[in-house]
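Students often ask why we bother predicting the structure of a whole assembly rather than each chain alone. The short answer is interfaces. A chain on its own may look different once its partners are present, and contacts between molecules only exist in the joint model. In this exercise we take two input lines together and write out one structure for the complete complex. Read the inputs first and try to guess which parts will touch.
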Amino acid sequence: MSSSDRFERLREQTSAEHTDSTAPTLLAVVALAISLFVLSPLVWLFLRAGEIAVPRAIELLTSQTTVEVTLNTLVLVVGVTTASVVVGVPLAILTAQTDLPFRRFWTITSALPLVVPSYIGAFAFVSAFGPRGALAGLLAPLGVEQLPTVYGLHGAVLVLTLFTYPYVFLTTRAALLSFDGTVVEAARSLNHTRWEAFKRVTLPQIAPGIAAGALLVALYTLSDFGTPAIMQYDVFTRMIYNEFGARRLDYASVLSMLLLVMALGILAVESRLNAGRDGAYVSRGSRQPGQIRLGRWKVPALAFCAGIASLCLVLPIAILLRWLVRSGTGYVGGGFAFEFAYAWNSVGLAAAAAAISVLAALPVAYLSARSDTGLASLPERATYVGYAVPGVVLGLALVYLGLAYVPFLYQSVVLLVFAYVVRFLPQAVGTTESSILQVDPSYIEAARSLGYDPISAFRQVVLPLVAPGLAAGAALVFLTTMKELPATLMLRPTGFETFVTYIWLVQGAGYYGQAAVPALILVGVSGLSMLVILRREGSS
Amino acid sequence: MTDDDTLSDGTRSRRRFLQFGGATAAAALAGCSGLSLGGDGDTGPVSLSDFRGSGPLVAQRPDPGGTSIEDLPALEGELTLYLGGGEGGLYLDLIELLERRYPDFTTNHRLEASSDLANTIIEEVDAGQSPADVFMAVDAGSLGAVANAGATAALPEEALSAVPEEFQDEQGRWVGIAGRARAIPYNTNELSASDVPASVQDFPETGAFQDSLGWAPTYSAFQSFVTAMRLIRGDEETRAWLQAMLDAGISEYPDEFRVSNAVADGELVAGFANHYYSQRVKSARQDAPLDLAFTEGDAGALVNVSGLEILQGTQNSELAANFVRHILSAEAQEFFATRTFAYPMIPGVQPVGGLPTIDELDPPDIDLTELADVAGTVDLLREAGVL
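Now the answer. The structure tokens for the assembled complex follow.
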């Protein structure tokens, strides 16, 4: 039975009160506790920042460098977010609502770039488009002397967009698949042009979906270290890292606080855009709109999809294969021999992070989905802050707090998994919440009236219905954990290497050839988890 | 043994336990296997040829002088090492050789950038003590930072006496194990050695270098070089020099291996890099038009060291001391010379690859421990607009 039928029937019922009568207080307490727990590492920032004298803090905050880097960071975030919407939304519409040939294939290729770590993407782009790179080598015989430089703002925007737009693609696509297409047909029958119908009817409905994806992109951009560093563009994360390297924790913590303020700003903007978001997630019916026929736009549409896939997937994989073939970089680093244990370490950590994130996400998402007050969604909003904390800052905070307060957990897998949960929980919260919103509360009431206690009612009725959303959240956490680098470097147990720490070490030492195989495996394994996310949509 | 030590020993076993309980059984197994790189069960006799690299240059070499590992006590027990820097891969090769030779000797290692590990150790010692027994870093600045934080324990006298005084801490808190000379890799199609000025101070005005030099200002060895310039010439002059280099259109790279490759590719005429990167480029691409020039008596001729120190609070001080002596043995120094192209630290072992010997270099007269003032250098680099 398709879920659409189920919702169709539910829609006919008059839904009762939204709130569940008994559990909310307990639920609120649990959700609040979880959000406080994941925010706890930030205490470290306040401790460090509290050690700074006020004049010094003001001097640091108003220094020319700070102002410049703030502007740089804002420009980058706005640029990447805008570009991601420009790329992600058309791809979502093409794959969800048109007669594009091989739609299933293009859906997968459009989502897959999310599995490529952006620092590997950045290396691939530098390697391909940099001075004396692969492309320059190909073009040299044709008399092309110099390529425009790939370094700087435009390079950073390009690379970050290409590897983060799938967030927008996935959330927009989900919104498109769940809204009632008959409204568009109604608009069309009122003589609106296709564009007007899109602007007036479709866009307002999918805007919350777009905003949700854009939020993830903006927060990711804010916290990313590798890509701006490789593209030689000065942003907060790069400065913070340098300050930590120089052991000037006061400036580093001031910068980190400023970064958090920017994250809160992004959350506030998103929150306003998102005011009516509940509507976007709730399936209004099964009436899919008549597919848009592309007609003569078919070829440009295909070219667009193929172009993006080439840049995001074909190019990095080709560069990795080239490293593999052309690996002669001096002596062989035997000490860097790859071990399959690293793969198991990565998979084990990612699985643990995914499982715990889903468990923690449930109460937070449930509270936010089932309550109408802004206060109740506070824990949900709070979890997003962790996503914006750069791994470097989180890693140092946990090193410090771990040593000071829980020394027996220092350099343990437990603390490392906690770091992943802090960073990636919002991804699970997002998907979980959207699937909870699709479950009619009257189901629970029916179960309650049959004598189930709230917990059993939840387990018997809600859980099976939201399982696909939980799986998607788990998959998202799994694959972002597989890619995470800075916190992994700082917090892993001594002697415990993973895919990314290994890739980082060998590429840092210049052994690109040795980085190629694990990078390809990493992309492959993460790709499998992406299939879980897409399967959730069924055979759409 | 103090109470602190007992406590932290318990801490460590607990941590190991948590590793088991933490993620998955597979993850835990790997976490405890420690170092088994390059194949398990690889034990057996290890000879000089295992330590020595290969190639025509190496084949002609005389046997190294110095204390042989044959004359040192056997290594037994488990040692936790923090290994700084990308060259850690090579250090692991050396450690693996020692593990092969001594079946009862195992290591547990952590590989990160030297400065990151120095910060970690300082945090750890602040909080009680570090889980590491030995810190092995690729620059004296990181060693100095840890030493200045009071986080080191005494080194064995035999190790200190084997190494020239300029390559160890004045108070014997760290000792050099391999030399890393600052050098000017240049493209031999574009320049000859005599075109490279003898002083880095003259670089901004050198016509051939306009818009065609490269550096890696985020790289710690480069920052040590700038720190050395500050020690020799003061902040004002260093700032002016950095500014002049920017005005001369210098290009930025993420690390010095890439600088050296860019010189070999002809993308740059010359650059700033540690000497061994060029040796590595040449060993990969034998006809690369790449050679090294050295400046004289200034920061550009700085000889920095990889070195190690024993960390305060270690439970394994005897093993750690014996390990240090092994790293300064004739065989291990031959390893550094022939496999990492570094300058060996004991007089009985010669450098390879047509390098001037260490006494032919003209390094500036500074105390390497003072290279720990990285913060001041980062400030200066930022003020000058380099970072």
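Check your guess against this: The radius of gyration of chain B is 21 Å.
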